[in-house]
């Protein structure tokens, strides 16, 4: 029989699941931030953009302006370019966290000649409590180089 104490033998195998439970406990609805309804339309050269991905990422204001605060809101645009954000209930339109956000639009299934990149901020927006927040997102026209890259990426996806 091994002379290793029982705690040392089983300590590692017990501690991993316990750590997981503690971390998962911080992700519950009890830690949610207040949200407000957010919707709008994504347009490219005056035309609605279907299938784009819209992200509202809350940020801290003041001296810590680059810090992320709260959970990101997300939506896909419909056939008319409209979106309704969801944060805690995907697809349910529960809105975005109240406060300042950096707004990004990703390509998703969208087919247009505008610049979209979920890594680049399109604008900043403030989501206000107890109101319907509406933001039209006007995409900048893509450069010739960006258009060629987008076409190449679509072609690779089709393969």
UniProtKB/TrEMBL annotation:
Signal sequence residues: 1-24
Keywords: Signal
The protein's name: Carboxypeptidase regulatory-like domain-containing protein
Organism: Roseimaritima multifibrata
């Amino acid at each position: 029989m091994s002379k290793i104490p029982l705690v040392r033998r089983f300590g590692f195998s017990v501690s991993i699941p316990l750590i997981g439970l503690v971390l998962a406990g911080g992700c519950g609805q009890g830690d949610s931030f207040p949200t407000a309804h957010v919707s709008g339309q994504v347009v490219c050269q005056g035309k609605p953009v279907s299938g784009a991905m819209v992200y509202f990422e809350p940020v801290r204001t003041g001296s810590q302006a680059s810090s992320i605060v709260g959970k990101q809101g997300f939506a896909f645009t419909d056939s008319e370019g409209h979106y309704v954000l969801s944060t805690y209930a995907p697809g349910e339109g529960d809105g975005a966290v109240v406060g300042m956000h950096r707004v990004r639009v990703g390509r998703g299934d969208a087919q247009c000649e505008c610049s979209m990149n979920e890594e680049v901020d399109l604008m900043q927006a403030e989501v206000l409590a107890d109101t319907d927040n509406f933001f039209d997102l006007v995409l900048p026209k893509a450069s010739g180089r960006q258009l060629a890259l987008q076409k190449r990426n679509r072609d690779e996806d089709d393969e």
